[in-house]
Amino acid sequence: MNPLLPALVAALLPLVGSILVWLVPSWSRALAVVTAAGVLVAALGVVNRVALDGAAMMTLGGWPETLGIGIAVDGVGALFLLASAVVGLAATAYGAGYFPARHPFWTLWLLLWAALNAVFITADAFNAYVALELAGLTAAVLVTLGGERDAMAAGLRYLLVSLVGATLYLAGVAVAYTATGTLSLNALMADSPPMMAGVLALGGLALKAALFPLHGWLPPAHARAPGPVSAILSALVVKAALYLAWRWLEVAPVAAEAFILLGIGAVIWGSLQALRVGRLKAIIAWSTVAQMGYLAVGLALAVEGAAGAAMGVAWLALTHALAKGAAFLGAASVVRAAGHDRWPLAAAHLRNRPVLVLAFGLAAASLAGLPPSGGFVAKWYLLDAAMGAERWLLAAVIAGGGLLSAAYLYRILHPALDPRPGAEASHPVPPVLEWSALGLALLVTAFGVVVPWARDLVGVAA
Amino acid sequence: MTAAIFLFLGLFLAVLGGLTTFLRSDGLHRIISLNIAGSGVFLALMAAPGGEEGVDPVAQALVLTGIVVAVAISGVALVLLARLAELGGRS
Amino acid sequence: MSPALLPPIAVAIPLIAGLLIFHVPEERHGLRTALNLGAALAKLALVVVLLFGVVGGATYEAALNWLPGRDLILRVDALALLFLALSSLLWLLTTVYAIAYLEGGSHRSRFFGFFSLCVAATAGIALAGNLLTFLLFYELLTLATWPLVIHRGTAEARRAGAVYLRYTLSGGVVLLAGIVLLESVTGPVDFAIGAALPAQAGPAVVIAFALMLAGLGVKAALVPLHGWLPRAMVAPAPVSALLHAVAVVKAGAFGIIRLVHDVYGPAYLAAFGGLNVLMGLSVATILWGSWRALSQDDLKRRLAYSTVCQVSYIALGMAVAGPVAVVGGLVHLVHQGLMKITLFFAAGNLAETLEVHRISRMDGVGQRMPLTMGVFTVGALGMIGVPPVAGFVSKWYLGAGAIAVEHPEILGILVLSSLLNAAYFLPILHRAWFRPPRAGEWRDHGRPGRLETHWMLLLPPLITAGTALAAGLFAGSEVSPLSWAQRVAEALGHGHD
Amino acid sequence: MVVLDALLALVLAGVAVATLNGLRRFRAVVLFVVFGLLLALIWARLGAVDLALAEAAIGAGVTGALLMAALDRLRRTESSRAVAGSAPSLWPVVLVALAAATVGMVAVLSLEPAGRPPVAFHLGASGVDHPVTAVLLAFRAWDTLLEVAVLVAAGVAVRAVGVVPSPPSTEAGPLQAGLLRLVVPVLVVLAVYLLWRGSHAPGGAFQAGALLAAAGVLVQLTRVPGPMDRPALWQRPAETIGLAVFTAAALITAALDVPLAWPEGWSKLWILTIEAGAAISIAVLLMRLFAGGAPVAAATSDPGKGRS
Lengths: 462, 91, 497, 308
Prior knowledge:
Order of helices and strands of chain A: HHEEHHHHHHHHHHHHHHHH
Strand content of chain A: under 5%
Structural class of chain A: mainly alpha
Number of strands of chain A: 2
Number of domains of chain A: 1
CATH class of chain B: Mainly Alpha
Shape of chain B: elongated
Radius of gyration of chain A: 20 Å
Largest interface: B-D, 66 and 92 residues
Distance between the termini of chain B: 43 Å
Oligomer: heterotetramer
Largest sheet of chain B: none
Strand order of the largest sheet of chain A: 1-2
Number of domains of chain B: 1
């Protein structure tokens, strides 16, 4: 039983699930939930194995590292995998209450999930390319499942952007391969390829991770995606590109400065837009743009070796995935109840739904970085790292960013507390929808407390 | 010497296709230009010097995978484009 | 049960009570009251046990490993007990008062749930052993008090809540930045040991002090940052009492005490002029608060500005930093709490029974509600500094401390502010006692029975007024707040020479 | 020979610029197919026979067919043939591309040659003789698995996007029927040969799949309703057999000991079975991409049909 089996299973299981769901559509909901449980078990297996005996690496097919495709799992990868498993389980449960059984959502979602997990375990640059393409394709089509015209347009734009990003990334990999003759990320880190390889690859990944100013495609796509899809997109899909950007930043650390500038721009621009837009899902989508800026800044700090920054970024990615997932699942429930998400008009539908308001409240607390949530722990680490590295501007952005997110998240809570009954009749919302949102929100609060075991996880990586 | 010519050609196609994607507003043209850009990158990869004798099989495998992925995504993009046109939208 | 568990229990009692009360159905008044009072009494008992323990020289400390290299520490020292005792006693009284005050109101389970969470956060602040724990509970206090400010749900209440959040969240972030900046220079700061400060105060340490002072200043309502306090008066009376006397403002003041004495130490601060900044701020706040109070017609807003002024006496005591002035500041923490909560209970009674909110409509109220106005008078005189009420004691020590440290102008400030206090409190007393009641001013809800209003609305203010009087009269005795403040001052002295 | 290559490169560059220039979509599609064929020639000149086959079959053939189908659908839904608005002149772009290409070439040529993965050394252990197939299905099998998954995702996606007015294939005239009877069997035999040949010479699953898809497209064009237009029981299993076989192989080998390491001595058999499944799936999925949208009900192609 080699140590990396659970990691490979985490990627293969959704593939098996997607095939079964495509062959037997009437059972898709049950099959999907079983697959989700399996992936969670695999992810936990990976996490505790990394916690026990540290990072592990293996080449598939038993070939030497220079030839075969390597898969590797370290602390950071384990945390991303855990986020994928947990948010995936919640999204699957939510989907069971939202989509009918014979709906293409199930196959596409499981294929997307397999691609994401493949990205989180890969240690090979080209393998990451193929996995990213699979993720981009399935995610773009998931956006169009809504069926109406502007969702279709947003989906097509997302697909083209994803293709451009992947081509750029491929060009970077090609240059790196030509110069060094190897595709393994660890080997690339050792004999650093020409700067052009890093620039091209990171350019493509920045486009796919919607890093400011390349973020144009994200808000329409995430805001118009149906139900749980927007949660999956914001919480997980953009993280895959970011995870790879972390690996490539270690290959080309010179790009770290650029990531800091883009990150600061993203935090400011994303927050300002989130304060302005008039639809609930658009607010949360712009919040993703801002938080990606946050992560980019943290990434650059981690790559520059600031103490504790790696832990901060990994923790921020995990808690952001959970909090953003909870927020979008909540928003989808509001849309299901109100039939629209014009804000603050739709807030009336939150009035007698305490579960949803609590989910939004806890998610907002974590995104703003207030204790006792996980977001606070991440913000503490990033701030500590920034101050330690004497990067005062970064410290100000990290601290101020939390306030900005509190401002636009308050736009969601403020009208929700208005006791006056709404004019529109609200449609019934199945309880599984609300509770999966609350489940994620409670988990992110719990992650604020349970930190010690994560420390040696990331310690292994950092 | 022939490899150098095709390396130049590959880079030329990659940059040409890449830039045109942003210039053309029509969906079909953008998909075609992206395909051309992809082919350019593949050509440059294959034509680049390296490896002892003959053509590097790993590079061939990468390009083959790239071609298949390109056709899959272009196919979906075209169907999306057609569907969008049917709904009366502009890509 | 090992003594180390006591501090976490002190925080856990109100926390668990709060979480339970959330789930008590609205109509089960009996169960809710039982839970509330039971928790309050249990905590008071625990405080008494701790008092005797600390007097006997025992130490209670519990540490939980939260972040790598950083622990959450709950430690009972003399200063912590001072604040904990005050908040536990007033929590019990405010609960009794709130039960009667909210009779027939809606969302009471939610109210008392958040009320208890708020007290739990206050206990956490009091017992915090290092800066990180303090920050955690400081931010939790914001989250717990915001729902209370907007309890009524009216548009005005929600706007006040938005203002409150804007101030306190910004304050929280600034405090966080300050703490991280300081700890990046000195490493984790434990209150018992103090910060490992560099001999020469570099820019980082100075900026960190400024940031932390600003962060704490928001809740302590120092001048430029006090805007939220008057606007928060839209909340029901028990919440105003809580905000002013028991929790929020005191948390800010308490934080300043920790910052000046346990983190930096007065000598180190004086070196780079930190104390002068604090003194300037507190003097400005005292004068500005009193000045603004003069022009307020709404009774609760006038009391709010009076609080802005009074809390700065505590900051002033720290800023003057002579051994006598520190005692004055510390004991004022308790005295101001007792007197201000009496005033708010009285104001609540007037609003609840006669629907009187404005001072201009308080003519002859003394005849209709002699007990309430009697209690109000004791509180008002104490605020002005008239012996034998406790306020006089703290002002006396502040004045003596100022003289001892050759700051005679501070005595001038104290006299001037006392005059201003008199200027805005005496007209109220005159109007209540010596003016005949105008017909049709009040909408009397009182029952013709023996008492002027519900007994549970009268008892708490009577107790707090009595305590304020006793604290003034028996200041010299062993068990008075003054003697405990002196014990705390000595302990602080050892912490930092 | 160098002159010929230079000429070929020049022509291809010219075709590429022509493709991207101008407004009329039909002109762009046709030129793109020419571009694909010329590119296949260049792969052959570079000695990459596998790529020449793939480019001709997939790059030019299938993509061309998809473009044609899309073009036809667009024409029927949009009024104007030519796209509105003026096409930006391409000359500045060409100049920039030329400059970038020269700089890139100089940079790439100045790289000191680095080693390449030891494919030849480990070829024996891979179970097949042809290096490209060995890389695709032995050394980097995980890439190929994900690649088949991409194709399946594309097939599912096309069906998920909903009903697209499938092209009105007119009733086959005698000439087409005759051509059909002649060409399709040849294509099928050729595909099987290519599949088998892949283990020791250029060929393999993708090229075989593309040829089968070409045959399918021909049938789809000439017969109404085509094989993909009616929902049939065989469609879904056929689409997923490639991925299912590959994933099963991965799971079994993972259970044995090292994932994706084909058992000693049997690796050729495993690779061939995987390639066979992949070829079928690729063919059906490419036909699905061509047919587009959910299969419409029997003869009446009403677009209102729900997703199946």
